[in-house]
Amino acid sequence: MTAGITLGWAFFGLVVALLLGYGLTRGIFVGSTTEYHASMGGFYSYNCRYLYPDGVRVKFGGGTGKTPNEAKASSDGFCPLLGSER
């Protein structure tokens, strides 16, 4: 391989590592859950799950309801790809 090709791959690897690091500091969306809360009056809440360097965190997705579908519909069923800052 020539030096230019090797340097190009090294630069590409650096860019990928930087983007991955940035994404992990913001939180990368890995899924969503609907949880039942019996102790609080029996309702469902829609939550978003994000991957951080120290593990997965669950954040409230904005939806509540008497059924799982109602909770997801009231939040538009949308979680951003990147979470908010810590």
Compile the SSE list and pairings.
Blueprint: H1 3-26, E1 28-37, E2 43-52, E3 55-65, H2 68-74
Antiparallel strand pairs: 1-2, 2-3
Give me the Rg, rounded: 19 Å
SS field, number of helical segments: 2
Uncertain stretches of 5 or more adjacent residues: none
Note the run of SSEs as H and E: HEEEH
Question: Major beta sheet, specifics?
Answer: 3 strands, antiparallel
Helical fraction equals 25-40%
Intertermini distance: 43 Å
Report the average pLDDT across residues: 84
Strand order of the largest sheet: 1-2-3
Structural class by SSE content:
alpha+beta
Structural shape = rod-shaped
Total strands: 3
- Strand percentage, roughly? 35-45%
Account of the protein in words:
The chain has two helices and three strands. The longest helix is centred in the N-terminal third of the chain and has 24 residues, at 3-26. A three-stranded antiparallel β-sheet has the order 1-2-3. The protein has 86 residues and is an alpha+beta fold. A hairpin with a 2-residue loop joins strand 2 and strand 3. It has helices at residues 3-26, 68-74; strands spanning 28-37, 43-52, 55-65.
